[in-house]
Amino acid sequence: MKEPSLLYAFLNTLQMQYNNIISDFTDGITTITINRPTKLNALNKATIFELHAAFKMAESDFDTKVIILTGSGEKAFVAGADISEFAHFDEESGRLLSKEGHDLLFDFVENLTTPVIAAVNGFALGGGLELAMSAHFRLASSNARMGLPEVSLGLIPGYGGTQRLAQLIGKGRALELIMTASMIDAEKALDYGLVNYVVPQDELLPKCIDLAHKIKSNSSLAISAAIKAVNANYRDGVNGFDVEISEFGTCFGTEDFEEGTTAFLEKRNSKFPGK
């Protein structure tokens, strides 16, 4: 159940004093900014926990129709994980690190029913690229650089990178990037289909906000249903067509459907209640 934004703002202030991120709400859009510029916004445990809390709160807010995720400063979206936190781990600790990351953040973001746009404003490496790929789609500034360099540390991507990169750009290109630990620039990422747009850095957030306004002018319930149906295609043992059929039918029982069809027939703009 989504709660109104006034309550969301109060709880956000009362319950969570963020040290590593900033969460702002304006006109139906929650912008979450990873705010560790001196560390190039690297992900540590505390940041992952704070991101989980901020995303969970935005997801529960009725008035948040779109979430934008970005990094502070001009150099990095997220330049990777904080290696010092796991350099001493053993096998079991490594598996737990990966699973907790999936559960708390990377799978969590992908499965939100509120659309998430990643504004990649610089380096997105390792866990940073994995986080961007968890969003529903991505925009990049012209100075952005992306890659999964984990094999240079004796590791593989552990937060979904082996799966999502192949889904987005194809198996061959994904394996080349992973095995060579190479970075690609924003234009190459656009060519590969990893990002949807490349714009100058000062135009990145305005472009994201423009897209967010286009998204939120439509039915939030229908958009949530579309996310579920598209995501189903990438789950083992799930028939995405069956999910689409189910979600399509569910839409017919909503006030949004009644408003959308009525507005169309009356030749006016829809005012979706989100119910």
Topology:
Layout: H1 5-15, E1 21-26, E2 29-34, H2 45-60, E3 66-71, E4 76-78, H3 91-110, E5 116-120, E6 123-125, H4 127-134, E7 137-141, E8 145-147, H5 161-169, H6 171-180, E9 183-185, H7 186-192, E10 197-199, H8 201-216, H9 220-232, H10 240-251, H11 255-265
Parallel strand pairs: 2-3, 3-5, 4-6, 5-7, 6-8, 7-10
Antiparallel strand pairs: 1-2, 8-9
Helix pairs in contact: 2-3, 3-4, 4-5, 5-6, 9-10
Task: Walk me through what this model shows.
- The chain is an alpha/beta fold.
- The chain has two domains: about 5-215, 2-enoyl-CoA Hydratase, Chain A, domain 1; about 220-265.
- About 50% of the residues lie in helices and about 15% in strands.
- The protein has eleven helices and ten strands.
- The strands form two sheets. It has a six-stranded mixed sheet, sandwiched between helices. A four-stranded mixed sheet has the order 4-6-8-9.
- Strand 2 (about 30-35), helix 2 (about 45-60) and strand 3 form a beta-alpha-beta unit.
- Helix 2 packs parallel to helix 3 and helix 9 packs antiparallel against helix 10 (about 240-250).
- The model has no long low-confidence stretch (mean pLDDT about 95).
Q: Bin the strand percentage.
A: 15-25%
CATH fold category name of the largest domain: 2-enoyl-CoA Hydratase, Chain A, domain 1
Tally of discrete structural domains: 2
- Cα radius of gyration in angstroms: 19 Å
Count of helix runs: 11
Number of strands: 10
Ends apart, CA distance between termini: 11 Å
Strand order of the largest sheet: 1-2-3-5-7-10
- Name given to the CATH architecture of the largest domain: Alpha-Beta Complex
Global shape = globular
Largest sheet: 6 strands, mixed
Mean pLDDT, rounded to whole units?
A: 93
Q: CATH top level of the largest domain?
A: Alpha Beta
